[in-house]
């Protein structure tokens, strides 16, 4: 029984690690490739979570829904709606510099959170949305459904990883990194700075929406507490910085490493005396902060730093005879 419990604990750890890996890949597109400081991850995560939940649940008098769509279509809808929200935010805020963009995105994320809490007809307010279906729910029941969901989550992670890696190596990705490194030079070379930044922000927000949808389907229940900035925004930034900004493999490694530390420390903090137990979340944040300091002291660019792809020049053949 102990081995069984340990196995399913590992399954749960990897499921949430995969969801955080998606969030890190999304943030890596925005910050690692485009230099866009998005501090409102929780807002777009929440848009995706509630969109997928509403699209896939049965009819209810407590909230909008009743569409009963398959889960993959719900996730596509989550990506589209989160991307549209990102487009609306980008059209307003993308011209702002990094610090001001961070402040604006925090404010917009808080607006989205207040909409989720107060619009009962849409989200059922603080009572949340329940009976959210899982993908491939007919293949297994009980705890084994977690194993099936684990495979589904990491399949999505693989697809996003391949897509983001192709974007990184593409001419679009090279132009984006040029804008990130030297905006003035990129503009002088004829690059449309605003267009590239809007595209980057929208793509990242769409992936964040998918991560939110997967989280909703995993827990089968969704409430406003799921969009806590501490667990969604702050922790994802720590993961990306520790893993390596600008490197997709580093983003995944950072997500798994920091989430494992966060989960394992919960086991130990729960064993603290009662007078310390109420401060357990702050102790865990202290440990995560100390780990980040240690990592950045030894690895300034993260565990797996960014490595630009080699430039390939077209080989020229011999000159033709004249």
From TrEMBL:
It comes from the Bacteria. Pfam families: BPD_transp_2 (PF02653). It is found in: Cell membrane. Keywords: Cell membrane, Membrane, Transmembrane, Transmembrane helix. It is a multi-pass membrane protein. The chain crosses the membrane at residues 6-29, 36-55, 67-88, 100-117, 147-168, 201-219, 281-299. The keyword Manganese does not apply. The keyword Ligase does not apply. This is Branched-chain amino acid ABC transporter permease.
